[in-house]
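INFO batch 0412 | record 1 of 1 | parsing
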Amino acid sequence: MRSGTDYNVIVPIPDDAHVCKDHRVYVVEQKIYYKDLQYNMDTRIWLGKAISDKEMHPNNNYKEKYPDVFRSITHLHLPQYVKHIGVYAAALKIAEDTKLYEDLRKQLGIQNANLVLDYAVYSIMTKSNVAKDFESEMKEQMTFLDRVYSDSWMGEKFDNAITDNHVQAFKNAWLKRFGSQDEFGVWLCIDGSNDDCRTDIDEAEKGKAKSHKNVDIISFLYAVTETGVPVTSQVYRGSRVDSHALKEMLDIMSGYKMTIKGVILDRGFCTDGCIELLNKNEYDYVIMMKEGTLGFETLLSKYQNKIKYKYQYALGHGLFGASEAKIKPFNNSKAEVSGCIIWDCKNGSERISYLIDEVMEAAKEAEEAIANKTVPKIPPKLDDYVSVVNGENGLEVKVDAEAVDSENETKGFYGLICRNPMTAKEADRVYNLRDASEKQYSILKTQLGNDALRVHSMHRIRVRELIAFVAAIIRHGIMTRCRSGYPVYDTNVAIKELKLININLIGDTHYKVIHNQSTKQKEIMARIGLDMNNLDYIAGYETKRFKNEAVSPIHCLKDSASEEEKQKTQHVEGIPEGSSAKGKGSKSKATTPEDSGNESGTRHRGRPKGSKNKQKTENSETVHRGRGRPKGSKNKQKSENDEPPVQRKRGRPKGSKNKSKK
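INFO prediction complete | emitting tokens
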């Protein structure tokens, strides 16, 4: 209720409002009578907090319900003097380069595309998806929409303007574009998540909840490349078997001509159904085995004491491993697969040390409790190693050292299964391609609400999942570009630096970039593909919006007008175009190599290419000029002062001389 309350503003309390004892102000939207309870229940809209009988501090609900009253407060019209543009510019650059922005506009519409990008930028910066914080977090940010809207406005758009069909159309367009760029094939890293559903949704059903609670869940499935590029995602009912959801995703991707080298899956997909599905469709795969399965226990018993610290089994970087061409992964498996067992001595040593420390600490605390004559409490996960028994002198703490040592013997081991035989080193290399994708999964899950969903419809879940997917594409673009050179910049550090790039309102007339960026900021911008001209153009665009001038709702980083100017005729020295004077320096148009038909651009002899002879009419004949005066010409009229022409006599003119003979 109190979220968004503006304590700097005082507004009148509406006539139909009610004030609680704790000074909260509300209005009744509707009254509902429940027959079973014989009780009237009010639907209330909380407006803020009262400071007197007639005045109050408003919140966001007040601003939406009484906009005219709110706008009448004069000091609320202050413009935003500083706006952060760095993350907006990076998101726009990546959305342009990947054609993400184009696909969103075509499938969702321009306004919906801008809304999704704004919310994606918000989730990237805050790692949150809480709508009520959007307005406060984004009010100082450059946005794709013309202004920052309230959470209620966005909720209406999410519910009605963006449909499930829009969401699916975008995913198909992205898959089509991704498939057309796929030349050599990719390893797909597929992961999923089961989230508790805290509201009543028809599609939510009981399943294997990660919280281990008996609650309804909704499941997600994501696919990215081995470099972490998001490919597709889907939402499905919590009771659905993983192999069925996996089959649907692979079938959809195969329809877009994607060349899939293989699939990399974690231990959650290590089931007989998933393996049977992949074998049937002839997909290569590398899957982490669950501990306790037949395949893992078979390899562990054979190589547990054989490969530790042995050079012939060394894989490098503290890893030792061995492989078997054929093993049976499960007791009821019909097919045999290739399997590998790997021991990580560094990880194993850390886990052994950690377990020993935990056992020792638990035993010490239990002994202190007995000494203080209190009941000792042993952590449930250590019940197999530490116990409290009745001894000769009373309660005693007993540690099962053999159980601790036996458990430590298996620390650091993990198993992989493959469709085709692989060496332990190659299988481990392929599985480690998940490293890039694991970070994407963690970000996606955070943006979706971690392990619990609090939305009230399946449609809202799909829209939220769409925004998280778009944010993952943009974040991955920032991550890869910041890793493309030296020094390597962490993604979160890069986003933090981009947030500090501002435009300032100068003289209440225009926005301007103050070019005082640090060396790190300039380097991060250069990695992403941004320069100062891009920032200046953004400032000019925001200035036009500030002045309420007409601007295109489609954002870009280059000035279309300047591009058109580049296509215009270049300046040529000489007489200006349109001058009637002729001669060497005149011009009517700059000649280009394409116009002249040759590479150098100079005019060759002869008729220009493409010219034609004039068409002759039927009556037209070629007239040849005869000897003598043309027909119709007249002698010049003589004036009175004109002397008669001198008649030339025969012979040499008087005074002439013969040419000298050599």
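INFO post-check: DSSP finds 21 helices and 21 strands in the chain.
INFO record closed
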